[in-house]
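Give me C-alpha cells for this 1058-residue protein.
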Amino acid sequence: MGHTSLDKIIALQNKPANIRNLCILAHVDHGGEDYLINLIDSPGHVDFSSEVSTAVRLCDGAIVIVDAVEGVCPQTQAVLRQAWLENIRPVLVINKIDRLIGELKLTSQEAYTHLQKILEQVNAVTGSLFTSKVLEERAEKDSEVREAGGGDNGEQVYDWSAGLEESDDSDLYFSPDQGNVVFASAIDGWGFSIHQFAHMYSQKMGIRSEVLLKTLWGDFYLNAKAKKIMKGAQSKGKKPLFVQLVLDNIWSLYDAVVLKRDKEKVEKVMSSLGVKVAARDSRHSDPRVLLSAICSQWLPVSQAVLTMVCNRLPSPLDMAAERVEKLMCVGARRFDCLPEKTQELKRAFLECKSDTSAPVVVFVSKMFAVDSKALPQNKQRPLTQEEMAQRRELARQRHAEKLAASQAADAPAQPLSQGRSATESGIEEGKEHFIAFARVYSGVVRKGQKVFVLGPKYDPAEGLKKLPEGCSTADDLCTVPHMACCSLGSLYLLMGRELEELEEVPAGNVLGIGGMEDWILKSATISTSPACPPFTPLNFEATPIVRVAIEPKHPSKYMPKLVRGMKLLNQADPCAEVLIQETGEHVLVTAGEVHLQRCLDDLRERFAKIEISASKPIIPFRETIVRPPKVDMVNEELGKQQKVAVIRQVKEEQSKYPETVQVDSTGLVTLTTANRMATIGVRAIPLPEEVTQLLEANSDLIRTMELFNLSMKEGKTLEINQKTLESIQDLKRKLESYMQGRKWRSAVNRIWSFGPRRYGPNILVNNLEGYRRPSVWQCLEKERSRAETYREFDNSIVSGFQLATLSGPMCEEPLMGVCFSLEKWDMKLPRQPSEGDRVSPDDPARLDRSGDGVYGQTSDQEAQGGSESESVVPTGSSEGKRRNNSSLVDCYGPFSGQLIAAMKEACRYAFQAKPQRLMAAMYTCEIMATAEVLGRVYGVLSKREGRVLQEEMKEGTEVFIIKAVLPVAESFGFADEIRKRTSGLASPQLIFSHWEVISSDPFWVPTTEEEYLHFGEKADSINQALKYMNGVRRRKGLYVEEKIVEHAEKQRTLGKNK
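Here you go.
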C-alpha cells in the first residue's frame, strides 16, 4: 500500500460503490479493483466518547477493537451502542493476542476458549440492543392493532418471544465464519481472518475452502485417519480445527522466535512459510524485531483488516432507508408528516446522486482547528523545472549586475524582497483556522458554492411557506428563522495530518470545508434546498459534569485573549461547554478529569496562548428531602427523649421565621405577601426514588409536553408523532404505578408543572379546592374540557416554583426529587373584596376578557419565564390599564412579582421544614487489578468514600474486576493515586452514573455523650454532607457557620512588665 496520487483519489471519489467511510485516507488495491477508504480514528478513553459520536455520524461502518486480555470494557459497550443508534454496521478486531502467549502464558487450547468467551460477551451486548429494538417495534404494532380493532377480544397470553423469532438477526452477530472478525497483534504486525487460512489449507489439504470456512471456527476436528472433518471436538476430547490449524502454528512461531530463540527452528519455519528476512533483522538483539519481520510478510494485519472492510462494510449506496428517515426526523416529528418536497429528498440520499440536478445535502459533525501553516495554500511546495530555470536566470542577472556596478546593492535586493513577500503572503504566525469536518450525502459540493446553513430548530414546512417556489441560494431571499445563506470556502481532502485542496467533492465522501467558522458553532446541516430538514442531534454518551472557573494570570492585560480563546475552544470541542456565570466567572464544563486537562492545555498552547489559572473543580450537587429517619447518626433507634428534643428544636426554629410565615406540625407552610393581598399554603413531600429517576430519564418528553402546552395557551397547535405520544402515555402510566398510596391519590392528573426549567425532576401539584386548570397531559386528551381554565396569576405561581427548584436553601444548588403541593391560594385584591378565592367557570364576570376588571387578564398575555420583576399587562382600553396598574402596583412593586417571590419563599420554607439532604453525583468505577494489589485498591477506594458493588475474577487469568461507585467530588486525582499505589498494575475507568443521597444530615448536632464521642468537635470522622455543603457555600460567597479560630492563645511578649 504505497503513496497514492491525488488524481487517482479524485477519480475514486466519483465511484460511491467503491467508497468505504469508516483520519487516515488510504488507497487499497483489492483484487484488481480500487477502493477508497476513509478511516476516521477516535480516542478510546471514555472522556472522549463525544469524538466517537462525531465520527460515527459520518460513517457507514465501524471497526470495533477489543483487547484480547481485558475483553469487553464499559467503553466497548458504549461504542457498540453508539454504532447501533446511528444504524451503522460494525466489524470486530480482537487485538493484542500476543499478550495471551507472553503475559498470561495460555496454551493454544485455553486461548481458543478465552477468545470464544470474548466473542460471546460482544454478541451479548449486540443481542440486548437488538432485543430491545424488536420488543419496542412489537409493542408499537400491538398498540396500532388495538386502536384499529377497538380493544382486545377475550383474554390473550402475551408471547414476548414472537417478535424475536420472526426477526432476521443472521448478519447481526460477530462470527469468524461470516468474515466480520479479525484476530490480530498490531504490535507484532500480524492479523488474519479465517478466510485466509481456509484458502491456504484448501490448496494443501485438498478440502474445499467453503467447507473449511464453515468448520474452522466451531466444535469441529480433523480425523487424520479418515481425512475428514468431524463434529464434536469437545465431547471427544479432540483439538478443535481452529487450534490445530491456526493457533498451534502461531504459538509454535512465538515459542521458536521469542521464548526459546531456536535459530534452526526459526529457519525451518521461514522456509516452510516462504518468508525471507533481512540479515539485520535476524541478527537483532530484540527477538520481537525478527518476529515482526516474519509476521508482516506471512499474515500482514493491514491486508486482513482492509479486506474485511471492503467485503463486509457497506458503501454509501447501501445506506438503509430506516437510517435516512431517522436522520431527517428531529425530535417528535414523524417522517410521513414532513412536507412532500422533504420526503422526496430521501430518494437522493439512497441513490447517493452526484449529478448537477441533485440537491446538495451535507452534514457537519464537528469543527476542528488547524494552524495556518498546515493549510495547503500556505505550504512551501516543491519547485517545478520551469521555476528552477527561472530562479537560475534571476541569479545570473543579479551576478551580472554585481559585476557591472559592484557598489550598487539596491538593485539586486529588489527581486529578493519580492520572492520573500510571495512566500510569506497570507501566513499569519500561529493563527488557528477552523475546518468543518463533514460528509456529502447528496449532490456535488463545489468551492465558492452558495448554500443554506440550517440550525437545529429550522422547520422546512415554515421555510417552504415563506420562500417562493423554485427559489435557489443565488436569489435575494427573505429571512427565515434558523436558516442562513453563505458561500463555501476551500474544500479539503483529509490525508491524516495533511490537507489537499479540491475543487469539488461528489456524494458519499468525507471532506473538510474551510471558511465556515462564522456560520457554524459545532455541528450543522448544509443544503441547497430549503426543503431539507436539519439532521437529528448527535448522541453523546459522556455527560459534561466537571466544571472549573478560569482566569488569566494577569486579568487586566489578557482577559480579551482568554474570552477569544474560550470561544475557539467551545467551537473546536464537541463536548466542552463554556459559560459565563452571574458572578462574572468564566466556567469551562468538561466530561472528566482527562478531558479537562486536555482542554486546559489547548487553551494555554493553541487558542488563548496565555498563562491561565484554573480553580479547583466545581462539583455539582443536588438538594432533596427525605422521610423522617427512624435511627440517629449512631444507628440507634430514636427514642421518646430524642423526639421531644427534635420537637423543641422545631419550635425554636419557628420563632426565627418572619411574621408573614407560619409552619404547622405537619410541614404546611402558610406565607402572606408583603402587601397582605395574597396568602399561599405549600407543603413539601419527598418523591419516590423511582419517580425521580423516571423524570430525569424522560426530560426530553417533558420538554415536548411543555412546548405543546405553551402552543395551546397561545392558541396554536403543535403536531406530535404517534411514537412520542405513546412514550408520553407510557410515562404517565409508569408515574401512576410508582405514585401509589393515599397521599398520591390522583396526583399525576393534578401535576401543575415540572421544574427547574420546566422539565426537571421536581413537580408542583395542584391541591386547591375548586381550581380546575388545563392538565399538563393535554397532548393525550382528545377534547379539552370547557370547565378547565387558567386562573389569573397562574403563571406567577409556576415562575415562583421554577425559581425555588433552581436554587435550594442549603447551598443554592438545584432541587431533585421534591414534590411541592399547593394547598392554599387566597387573593384579596382591591375593588373586589367580596369576591371568593376561586374562579368559577359559571361566573362570566370573573372570566371577562375585556380588561376592565382585575380578572380581565388571560393566560396568553402572561409573560413566560422566571423573572421576579414580571408585571401584569391587562388588555383593553388605556383607561382600564391605568386603573389596573394603580390598583395592582403599590409600594411593594407589581402584584405578580410579589406572588412569584412569595411562592419561591413558601417553597423554600416548606423544604426546610422537612429533613434536608444533599445529593452527590456518582461515578461508576471499573478497576482491573491483580491479586497482589487488591488491598491497595480497596484502601484508595475507602479513603475516597467509594463503595465496592462487585468483585469477580476473570476466568483463565489472575485479574480481578472490581465494580464500585465513587462520588465525583472525591474523584480528582483518583486515577493517578491508584496507579501510584499499585505501581501501574491497576487502572480505573470512570463513567458518570447517577445521583445519590448522602445519608448524613448536614444540620445534625450531637446531643448525647456517645454522639459527641463519634461526631463531636474532636472526633476523627467528619460530617461529609456538612463538609460538602460548606465548601459550596464558601465558593458562592454565602454565610458559613464555622469557627474561624480553633486554637486561640493569649499573645505573649518578651518584656516581663508588659
